[in-house]
Amino acid sequence: xxxxxxxxxxxxxxxxxxxxxxDRVTKIISNIVVAFFLMGLIVGLLSYLxxxxxxxQISPFFAIELAFNVLxxxxxxxxxxxxxxxxxxxxxxxxxIISLLLLRDAFKEFGHYLGEMNWELGFAMELLPIxxxxxxxxxxxxxxxxxxxxxxxxxxxxxxxxxxxxxxxxKLISIxxxxxxxxxxxxxxxxxxxxxxxxxxxxxxxxxLIFTDVFILLFSLRYSTKYFNLFxxxxxxxxxxxLRLTLSAPPFYNVLLAVIAGLMVLGVTYIYNKLLSQQKIxx
Length: 283
Prior knowledge:
Keywords: Membrane, Transmembrane, Transmembrane helix. By secondary structure, the chain is mostly helical.
């Protein structure tokens, strides 16, 4: 009974994953993001013309912020679908999301300075957080690209049956992460309607990712207890913790934490590849 129940969930994941990577879904996602961007432009225009209720305060860059938020939703879903395929690629996806968040915050803050600008020292200092987020996003973009390029996907399982079992567990995790993410999204919408303030639950979701990484680390011990693999998975979990702190950190510190996390996983990847090559030569 239990095996049948979990088997149904795994088949559901396979079906969703198959459609998620299709060209049709990609076009649908693009259309949705563009639609929200246009809707944001209309709302911003109505706010500029004072045609909205007084309690609604809309930034001139609301359309960009809204489009980025919708795009981030699909990026998170893409992250969830990556877990069964590669934990390393899923970690890379987390850095992609952080870089987009930094860009979104830069656009959001820049929207406060579209009026008359007084280019004095104080104003220049106010722009530093925006510059920090922008260049931080570029650094994370670079680190993420190098991280993907350096990846060597080596199975830790010993045979096909173990590989299927390991992937199946990760598919179940992805299913429940998807359900949780949808639940958080519904909660955010209801909360925004009640409080007239949208609170994005990405922080809570990244907290769940920490436990997910640790669970995968512990479960992987069933297939391999090699120190190299153990340390590599542990570094991924630690990087997720740093990224979670990034979401709550003030300006400058958020970029610093994200860059530290990126350099850490990049360094571990290069060292892991080097040790792996030496091990193959010695064998």
